Amino acid sequence: MLLLPVVAAVFLIAGLWMGRALDCRHPDSSARQKLNEIFDVIESRYVDEVDFDSLVELTIPEVLQNLDPHSSYIPASKRVAVNRDLEGSFYGIGIQFQMLNDTLYVLEVINGGGADEAGMLPGDRVIEVDGENIAGVEADEEHLFSILRGEKDTHVCLGVKRHNAPGLVYFDIVRAEVPVSPIDASYMLNDSVGYIRLGKFSENTYPEFLTTLGQLRYEGARSYVVDLRGNGGGYMNPAVLVANEFLEPNRLIVMTKGRTSRDQSVLVSDGLGGFTNEKLVLLIDEFSASSSEIFTGAIQDNDRGLVIGRRSFGKGLVQSPFELPDSSEFRLTVQRYYTPSGRCIQKTYKPGHTGEYETEIFDRYNRGEIFTADSVKVDSTLIFKTVSGRPVYGGGGIIPDIFVPSDTSGVTSYYIKVANSGLLRKFAYEYADLNRDSLNESRNVDEMLRKLPADNVLLQSFVNYANNKGGIAPRWYYINISAKLIVNQIKALIARDIVGMDGYFQVINATDPVVSEALRQLETGGADFPLTDKTTISNENE
User: Are 508 and 488 in contact, with CB atoms under 8 Å apart?
Assistant: First the structure.
C-alpha cells in the first residue's frame, strides 16, 4: 500500500447513496440520479425493510473495486487496526508477542516500556489480563490488542507464568507510548558492511532509519545492505527522504502525475544526505512494493547502488485517504508515480478483475520466474535508460541488476509439514524456555549458538518432538535432505527468543544466498558507483 501522508478530507457522499439532492449540472448527474432512484424505489417498494447502512457498506467496496486494485474502503470498525502498522506509536504495555498453543508468549520486551519497567521478561507467558483468563481459550488477536492497549497512564494487571516460578506472577503495568519500529533488524554483516532489514515505510521510518545508519557507521560500516524483501510499502514521503540520504544534489527521486495540478510533483535530492559516499546494495523480492519500489527505482535509475534479488511487486499507483462522516475511510488512487528514468512500474490490471491481479504472484511461481532469470517477464516495448545509459524496464515491477532465485534446497514434504504445523516455533520456544537461564548469559549470537547441542543432537531432539507432540512420523530420507534447513530454522528461532530479531536475522542471513551475493558484489567491486553501462557485474546465479 502506498499512501499520501495528508490529512484525510471529509468527503460527503450521503447524497450519492441515500437519494438526497443532486447538482444536476455535474456531467455524471444522470448516473448519480439513476443510483439515487434505485435506492428510493428499494426504500419504498422492496418487500422487506432494508438496512440501508448495511447496503451501503456492501456497495462502496464494489464501486471502488471497479476502479483499480488498490482503491479500497475501510469500515469504521476496522480503521484503527488497518492503520496501526503505519502509525509511529501507540499506547500499550510494550511487548512483542505471538500465540502458541492458545497462549500468549512474550517474544520481546521493549526497552523503557511499561512491561520493561514492571519487570516482565522475554519468555513470560501471559495467562490473565485484569482477571480475565486468555490462555487456552482461542483468544482473538484483535481482542488481545484491545485489552492490552488503552489510554495513556491507565493501568492493566497481567498474570504471568514464568519458567522458574511455581505459580503466576502478577505485574501492575502502566500503559505508555510504545514506538512501532519499521526496522526489523540491524547489525554488522562483517567489519565494514552494515545490514538493515526495513519492514515498512511508516511515519517514523526516516528518523529511525537515519539513526540506524549512524549507529552502524559508528560500529565501522562503510557499505550498507538494505533489505526490502517483504516490504509492502506505506507512506511515500519516508521513501523519498531515505533515498535522499544516498543521492548527490539535484538527482531526480520520483515524479507523480494525476488529474489535477495538486497531484503533479517532481521530487529532487537536496544533496544534504549524510551517506552519499558509501556503497549501497538493495535486496528486493516479489513482495517489495510501492514505497519500496520508489526507493529502489531512485537508487537504480541514478546508478547509485546495486539491486539484487527478484522482480518486485509492481505497484505504481498512489492512494490518498478520505475520511467519511461515520469515521470510516476510503483510499482513492489519485496519482501514478514514475521513477527518475520515466518508467511507471505498475503491473497491468483490469478494473473489476482483482482476482487475477491478486494471483499474479502465484503465476510467477507457476511459470518458473522465481527460480530462473530466463523466465522473468520483460516488456521490451518499455525500455528506459538510467543516468549512465543502462537499460531498465517499465510496466511490471523493478527487475534487479542481479537475479538470485528462490532457495528451495532442503524443502521437502516433511519440512513443509513441520513448518506449517508450527512445530519448529514450538520446539524452539520450549527449548529456549528450558535453558533460558544459561542462554541469557550469552553476550552475542555466536556465544549463544555455542551453547546449543551439536546439529545432529538438535535434529534428533526435534524429530522426536515432532513425532510425540505433533504426530508427524520420522521420514529419514526427507529429514536428511532437510536437515540443514530444519536445524538453521530452529537456531534462528531460539536466537529470536533469546537475543531478539537481530539475532534471528543473523542466523538466517548466514546461509541466505541473496545476502551472500550482496557481500560478494561489495567485495569484488560490483557495487562500486556510479554504475555504468560498462560496469562488469559477475553474477554466479545465472
Answer: yes
pLDDT for residue 408 is more than 70: yes
CB 379 within 8 A of CB 393: yes
* Phi–psi pair at 279, nearest 5 degrees: -70, 150
Confidence of residue 26 (pLDDT cuts 50, 70, 90): low
Q: Which grid cell is 187?
A: 547489525
Residue 213: which of 202, 225, 231 has the closest Cα?
A: 225
- Using pLDDT thresholds of 50, 70 and 90, give the confidence band for residue 218: very high
In degrees, rounded to 5, the angle at the alpha carbon of residue 132 between the alpha carbons of residues 127 and 133 is 40
b/e burial code for range 371-401 (CB count within 10 A of at least 16 → b): eebeebbeeeeeebebbeebebbbbbbbbbb
- The CA-atom distances, in angstroms, between 430 and each of 435, 465, 469 are 9, 11, 12
Dist. CA 518–CA 237, nearest whole Å: 27
The 3 state secondary structure assigned to 203-254 is: CCHHHHHHHHHHHHHHCCCCEEEEECCCCCCEEHHHHHHHHHCCCCCCCEEE
Q: Report the helix count and the strand count for the chain, using DSSP H and E.
A: 19, 24
- The one catalytic residue in 72, 202, 312, 315 is 315
Segments in 373-475 forming alpha helices (H):
413-420, 423-434, 436-439, 445-450, 455-470
Residue 182 has pLDDT above 50, yes or no: yes
Residues 29-46 have pLDDT tens digits of 788 888 889 888 988 999
Check residue 29 and report its DSSP letter.
Answer: H
Is 315 considered catalytic here?
A: yes
**Catalytic residue, candidates 68, 116, 285, 301:** 301
Q: 317 in helix, strand or coil?
A: strand
- Specify the pTM: 0.86
Q: Say whether 290 is catalytic.
A: yes
Backbone φ and ψ for 86, nearest 5 degrees, come out as -95, -5
Type of residue found at 419: A
Catalytic residue among 181, 202, 223, 290: 290
In the predicted structure, residue 19 carries a pLDDT above the cut 50: no
